[in-house]
Amino acid sequence: MRKIAKQREEEGAEIDLTPMLDVVFIMLIFFIVVASFLKEAGLEINRPDDNQPQDPNDSVSIVVEIASDNQLWMENRRVDVRAVRANIQRLLAEDPEAPVTIKVAKGATTGIVADVADAAREAGQYNVSWATDKG
């Protein structure tokens, strides 16, 4: 009699994990589906090839150079990031069709590049080109 009672106690002590695994798989599928609908905000950039010749219109465009130490240069003078928009607006007042070219040196941080691109857009120029310095 004791053997039968002990066997029943052992049988009753089992926990069925199948429903828990079903819930885990359903949650996994849910998170995969939700993650596929999320669109990350970002800036899509097509980097130019090093083999391409220099653009002949580069001399008439507004050039903002970002050095590897995040210093900004416009018209051969150092500019603060807060003054980029005002300088672009001033240059656009002289030539409203002038595109903006941002030359980025290797080592510049992404935040400063995004700030300069935003300043160009806030100044009213949406024709922004990207260039990289060799070296």
Entry keywords:
single chain, alpha/beta, Nucleotidyltransferase, domain 5, 2 domains, 5-stranded mixed sheet, 4 helices, rod-shaped
Please trace the helix and strand order, writing H or E for each element: HHEEEHEHE
Unreliable stretches covering 5 or more consecutive residues: none
* Helix share, percent: 40-55%
State Rg: 30 Å
CATH topology name of the largest domain, in short, is Nucleotidyltransferase, domain 5
Question: What composes the largest sheet?
Answer: 5 strands, mixed
Protein name: Biopolymer transporter ExbD
Pfam families: ExbD
Membrane topology: Single-pass membrane protein; Single-pass type II membrane protein
Transmembrane segments: 20-38
